[in-house]
Amino acid sequence: MATKNMYRALIINFVSSLIIAIVTCDILYSFGLKGGMYLGNLFGLYFLVVYGVNNLADAREIPSNVYKFILIMAFILLFDAVYVFLIPLLFGPNAFPATEFMAINYNGVPFNFALSKEFYLALFAIVMLIFNFLIYRRDKRWGHGE
User: Fold this and answer.
1) 95 CA to centre of own chain
2) What's the pLDDT tens digit per position in 29-55?
């Protein structure tokens, strides 16, 4: 069963990652790079998921790798929900740029992508899950995982 120290570490890590995301967004906003506000989400998720949860897993606070991946998915969903709610409150209702469209023609087949905030949040969540899977495979290969 999880201890109070693990819950405290998870909460501190979540708040720290939100602070990192907000500071990144503030730096981008102050330089007029409003279109890059999504990078705050990437930096915050990286700190939360790759650094924080994997440190708890390395300290054997999280009982199994399945529980670690479930915890990571829950944290990604929670972080994205808080990020989407908090950033417009701090930087105005137009903090996220309007939806952009990208059209690619590959071998005669047209692909049209809508690059909205949902697209970027899903892309960053998938990237973080891939990073964690690669860390899991590396640990298994070197005999550190269970």
Assistant:
1) 18
2) 899 888 778 888 888 888 888 788 877
Does residue 94 contact residue 53 with C-beta atoms inside 8 Å?
Answer: no
Give, as one character, the DSSP assignment of residue 115. Answer: E
Nearby residues of 16 by Cβ (< 8 Å), 6 or more positions away: 47, 52
Closest CA to 121 of 17, 69, 44: 44
Q: Is 63 helix (H, G, I), strand (E, B) or coil?
A: coil
Distance, in Å, from the CA atom of 77 to the CA atom of 121, rounded to the nearest integer, reads: 9
Cα–Cα distance list, 139 to 6, 65, 133 (Å):
21, 11, 10
The structure's pTM equals 0.77
Write out the E strands in the chain: 100-106, 109-115
Burial class (CB in 10 A: 0-12, 13-18, 19+), 41: buried
- Is the model's pLDDT at 140 over the cut of 70? no
DSSP-assigned beta bridge partners for residue 102? 113
